[in-house]
Amino acid sequence: MRKFCGMLVCAAVFGLLGQTSQAAQLSMTGTVVGPAAENGLPFAFTLDYTGAAATSTAVTGGVLQVGAHVWNTVLGGTNPNISVVGNSLQVSVQFSGPSSLGAGTAVSFLSFTISGPAIGPNATEANINSIRNGATAGSGSVLVIPNAPFSGNNLVLQGNPSFVPEPGSVGLLLAIGAVVGGRRYLRRRSATVA
């Protein structure tokens, strides 16, 4: 059992170390707001980036979903970025081509602001995570041209700033739980044997 627990802990540690080489991610969920027929429609985005010492960093990939429409190719030549301005993140990303259901053939552009406590003026991963994890507000829009089947070109987005732990954090908690649970099991086992 000790060998198994040791292997489990090693696997968890190597898994967490392996995640550090991946691009960082910024995610947000929420709903479309306004008088349009899309009011209450859910949206979500996840953007890949690498932190930078400058005030902005390039977005290298991402996915945007509004209702059943999914855009998953970031248009690189349009300078997609995440900028730190005071205590907020400003996201500007243009997606290539239409959504999975055909909307936004000409333009699909996400503009979003997330407000929260910054730890510095730069677009480092730590600062972006600080603002996102402590977010008090998130709002923005998606410009979709042509807009069919949406009722308008500009969909107003209201973000849900509640914190959702990253997969690495969940892995760390599971590893700690496995170690503590394994130790308790070994103590009980040795107590019943004696």
List the helices and strands and how they pair.
Layout: H1 2-19, E1 24-33, E2 42-49, E3 56-66, E4 69-71, E5 81-85, E6 88-95, E7 107-115, H2 125-133, E8 137-145, E9 154-159, H3 167-193
Antiparallel strand pairs: 1-2, 1-9, 2-3, 3-4, 3-5, 5-6, 6-7, 7-8, 8-9
Helix pairs in contact: 1-3
Write up what this structure looks like.
The chain has 194 residues and is α+β, with helices and mostly antiparallel strands. The chain has one domain (23-164). 28% of the residues lie in helices and 36% in strands. It has three helices and nine strands, in the order H-E-E-E-E-E-E-E-H-E-E-H. The protein has helices at residues 2-19, 125-133, 167-193; strands at residues 24-33, 42-49, 56-66, 69-71, 81-85, 88-95, 107-115, 137-145, 154-159. Helix 1 (2-19) runs antiparallel to helix 3. The longest helix is centred in the last third of the chain and has 27 residues, at 167-193. The protein is elongated and about 75 Å long. Residues 5-13 and 17-21 have low confidence and may be disordered.
